[in-house]
UniProtKB/TrEMBL annotation:
Keywords: Cell membrane, Hydrolase, Membrane, Transmembrane, Transmembrane helix. SUPFAM superfamilies: Acid phosphatase/Vanadium-dependent haloperoxidase (SSF48317). The keyword Cell membrane applies. It comes from Streptomyces lateritius. The keyword Ribonucleoprotein does not apply. This is Phosphatase PAP2 family protein. It comes from the Bacteria. The lineage of its organism: Bacteria, Bacillati, Actinomycetota, Actinomycetes, Kitasatosporales.
Amino acid sequence: MRVLTTLRNGDHRLTRRMAAWDSAWARRLLPPVEEAAEHTKLWWVAAAVMATGGGWRGRKAAAAGIAGMAVAELLSNAVAKKLVERRRPPKEWIPHDDVEDRPDSSSFPSGHTAAAVAFTAAVASTWPWAGAACAVPTVLVALERVHSGAHYPSDVAAGVAIGLAAGALVHATPRLIILRLG
């Protein structure tokens, strides 16, 4: 019980610290990242760019990324959020205006982070250079979710785990089907 209390308290402290992070860099960069990540717009654009400019490998990476993102959204938003009801961080902890624009759904896990990580992991398994390029906005999305007060760091960590699992599942599925049919 003491370990859980320590983890919860650390999660709360880190949430307050990250939300209070007041740098010009964060104020300029994170709100546009949030807007781009809303409704997975950022990842659909990345998939379109890969599919149109990356030849066969780009189309394969785009399809893998979209599939990974779909699996992660299903797992995080349709399953995990229904199983774990967690309130968002208190508005009093968030010293900036972003706190007014938060979803009403459960805080746990971060669906934005799950989708971003799954997209990136699935793309990276197909086209490593494109995956590396996608990793930069993925990290920014994860940071933004805590900075905006939408999530606790543990919500984001759970989103990362779900995203990695979804990306691995998408990567392994063709081989599993072939083994099953063979």
